[in-house]
Write a structure and sequence with these properties.
By secondary structure, this protein is mainly alpha-helical. It is built from 13 helices and no strands. InterPro entries: BPD_transp_1_N, MetI-like, MetI-like_sf.
Length: 315
């Protein structure tokens, strides 16, 4: 087990390093010059040359990347080219909003998806099963931004049940925090819940047909004990994989949801940094997203060992 963890951690570090190089190269390919954003179109060539020298833009690419990497290893992601604000501090200021949005959406996706999937499996072929299959298909096919616009229009603007934009800090107003995140969380969680429900249903249906389930029934165990304590654990292995993929999916889609509901999170910071060619800010936000995704994948791999000890021994 420890050997598997060490191997996964080494792969994680290597992947983050490769992604940092790729992001640095891709940002350099974006058309335009960041000095144009800072100085405007009327800047003289001397002003442009002075600013480029002060920002280090004239240094060789490998020198600039090496300087950034040396600082990143020590927790210093540099400063914004536009505002001179520390990148690490900018991410810290906004990370709570995105984490709240993604964590609540993942929680809703897992709880709702597992409940619907298990109920649909034990009532296979019934009315609830058919409604669940139809609902999961609609949930997977429905674009998140479209659902968000519908919720903003009817539940926010028309009925006035929820705020349509903005964010309130949890410590300042817990009720306002929940109200402002309600519609974004529903928007982001709908597709994930549909995928988890569909995968859970398929896994539980297959597991209920295995021999050990018939043996448990023959021993007199009730349906709740057979499904809840035995069949569901076996069926959870592919579901855990789907949940792990949901984290990266939710993190990516949060960019759109933050734009629809005007949430000042990491996604909006990333998009604005790309438009401004604020290279240190882009590198910092993408590095954060990469670390989150690969860490979740590591946790998913480790969960296999708990759900199925044979998988850990094989790894």
């Amino acid at each position: 087990m420890l050997r598997m963890v060490a191997g996964r951690v080494a792969t994680l570090v290597l992947l983050v390093w490769v992604v940092s190089i790729a992001v640095f190269a891709l940002v350099l390919l974006i058309p335009g010059d960041p000095t144009s954003t800072l100085l405007g179109d009327n800047a003289t060539p001397e002003q442009v040359a002075t600013l480029r020298a002060s920002l280090g833009l004239d240094d060789p690419v490998h020198v600039r990347y090496g300087d950034w990497l040396a600082g990143a290893v020590q927790g210093d992601l540099g400063t914004s080219m536009l505002t001179s604000y520390p990148v690490t501090q900018a991410i810290t200021d906004r990370i709570g909003i995105t984490v709240s949005l993604v964590a609540l959406s993942l929680l809703v996706s897992v709880v709702v998806g597992l409940a619907i999937g298990v109920l649909a499996a034990v009532r296979q072929g019934g009315l609830f099963d058919r409604i669940a299959l139809l609902g999961s298909s609609v949930g997977i096919a429905m674009p998140n931004f479209w659902l968000g616009l519908l919720l903003v229009t009817f539940l926010g603007a028309e009925l006035g049940l929820f705020p349509t934009s903005g964010y309130v800090d949890l410590g300042a107003d817990p009720a306002g925090w929940a109200a402002h995140l309600a519609l974004p969380v529903v928007t982001l969680a709908a597709g994930g819940a549909a995928e988890v429900a569909r995968q859970t249903r398929a896994g539980v249906v297959d597991t209920l047909q295995l021999d050990f389930v018939r043996t448990l029934h023959a021993k007199g165990l009730g349906p709740l004990s057979v499904v809840g304590k035995h069949a569901l654990r076996t069926a959870l292995i592919p579901v855990v994989t789907v949940i792990g993929l949901q984290v990266s999916r939710l993190f990516g889609l949060s960019v759109l949801v933050e734009a629809v509901f005007a949430l000042p999170g990491i996604g909006s910071l990333m998009v604005q940094s790309v438009f401004d060619r604020d290279i240190p800010m882009v590198q910092g936000t993408v590095l954060l997203a990469t670390v989150v995704v690969v860490t979740v994948n590591l946790l998913v791999d480790l969960s296999y060992g708990w759900l199925n000890p044979k998988a850990a021994l094989t790894s």
